[in-house]
Amino acid sequence: MGEGRPGVAATLRALNEALGRPAALWVKESGARNLRHRDFLAPRAALSAAFPGGQVPPEAVSAVSSLRGPAVLPLRVCRQTPAGLAVQVRRPEAFRRLLGPLPGPAPTAAGARTGCVVLHCPALRSPGALRPRHLRSVLLADHLAQLLRAQGVDVRLVPALGEERRWDVLRQLRICWPSGGSSLTEAVSALKAALGRCSCAAACEQRPGTPEGVVCKVHLKSFVEQQGLLGYDPNLDVLLVTEGTLQSLAELQEAVLQCPVSDPMPASRFPSQSSCCSIVHVVNCEEEFQQQQLDVLWRILDPGAHTALQKHLVCGPVKVTNPSSPIGADQYFQLRKRQMYEASVIKYGELAQDEAWIEVIDTLTVAAIRFEMLSTAHRSQITLDLENNSISTKGTKSGAFVMYNCARLATLFNTFQRAVEQGTYPPLPPASELNFSCLREEGEWLLLFNYLLPFPEVLQQAAQLPPPSKGIRITANTETVCKFLIQLSMDFSSYYNRVHVLGEPFPHLFDQMFARLQLLEAVRDVFHSALATLHLPPLSQI
Transmembrane stretches, by residue range (predicted)? Predict the structure, then answer.
């Protein structure tokens, strides 16, 4: 059996099975203090509930120590401690298995598709200028699309950007969103025909105050009550259906039709019988009511499997402190860009005014805004302080701090490569020839155990869209990647400030230097992969 890449979930599963109890007894340690003594712990309280007197049978302890498996970390010792049953990992071997030659990417990530998700962002249909609250839901949908694609999920983004508006701020923020789109005339006609057959629909008299383009009115409340639908606003009642409403539905249906399915495409315009798409409406809380109206109307006109799979991912409010007037997304971007420029001039001096820094400042601005919008749980309120320069190059919880540490890694490897070319150091040997027992510094195990080891599972968890427990709202861990990168940057910065990686060019020091470079090369790859889900390119200088 091949060794494979160890994982946290597989190791925890094997540890629980070794104790012969169905309950999840083990936890992974993450704090530096506890990691000096143990890597996994079955807490005393959990053991007391699972075993008489909390005493684990010797044969179970022995089974833990002898665990082996392709995805299980190599274990060194298992012992009873006052805190519970503690396990330590054979660290040199763990370094070797995680930093050595690894198998290729998982099949789902390499090419096989695992379903289709339509991400619908109504904020992009806003008739007025985009506001920061709109930007939050668009950035979240853009990030979620990248996370899902990394897991092999086919993603469709709706609506397509219209050509009648300028979308400069989306381009500046590196938001990849489709534009244009096919004609929807046939699809809208099919929806009108469905309205004509709908018992919930009725003609709407054109009275003063009636919006232009009203096709009919539909009684939503009676349908919700008849179907026993949960989670909808009790104030849903009569919806005036306009041409614009039908255009929105038609575009959603087109996206569903484009999702890859195993069965041949049906002749019907409605893909009810063959599509297995999930539809996620990513909305800010102020748009939620209108989106629920569109949701119910779609269920009425197309009572198929895909419309029943609609989910609502609702973003909390975005509060702007003391605005002199409502601020648009463009103004918000330009303000943050000016603040980032000023902060860079203060930190780096005249260099920050050079033409070569324009791209760097733009990237730092995008990182600052994306982290400001995405590092908070999507359900929670975000407060934007636009008066004070809350975006800086110094804060340890900002996107600029993450990019700064990514650039430090680039500088390290550029310096090493130049030294190799000058004959100061030999080239980095293959990972299979490195001596990982040289990695004894506390920060080295912290980087491997808390970041390199769980990173694939972090991406999987961030991309999960669990079904709603009740109703139509779902919760996703969209803040996970930003928080992961911030914590990684803090621990990497602490290690890098403490350890001199490129030492004196003495042969007896090369083993440790090469092992450290291999570790940091893997850390760099994690930075790059995580930043890619945020459409952020790594910086080579800062």
Answer: none
Extended beta strands in 115-232, E state = 116-120, 154-158, 201-202, 214-219
Domain boundaries, the chain: 8-89, 116-258+275-321, 329-467+477-533
Q: 0.85 exceeded by the pTM? A: yes
Domain 329-467+477-533, CATH? 1.10.730.10
Report whether the peptide linkage leading into residue 43 is cis, meaning its omega lies within 30 degrees of zero: no
Spell out a b/e string for 359-374, using b for 16 or more CB atoms within 10 Å of the CB, else e: ebbbbbbbbbbbbbbb
Can you name the residues that pair with 240 across neighbouring β-strands?
Answer: 217
The single residue listed with the structure tokens 């910086």 is 539
pLDDT of residue 171: 93
Give 396-454 pLDDT, tens digit per residue. Answer: 678 999 999 999 999 999 999 999 999 999 999 999 999 999 999 999 999 999 999 99
In angstroms, rounded to a whole number, what is the distance separating the alpha carbons of residues 496 and 26? 31
Residues 6+ apart with CB under 8 A from 201: 195, 216, 217, 218, 219, 241
CATH of domain 116-258+275-321: 3.40.50.620
Residue whose structure tokens are 């083993």: 511
Q: CB under 8 Å, gap of 24 or more: what pairs does 353-361 form?
A: 360/539, 360/541, 360/542, 361/337
Looking only at Cα atoms, what is the longest distance across the chain? 89
Q: How many residues does the chain have?
A: 542
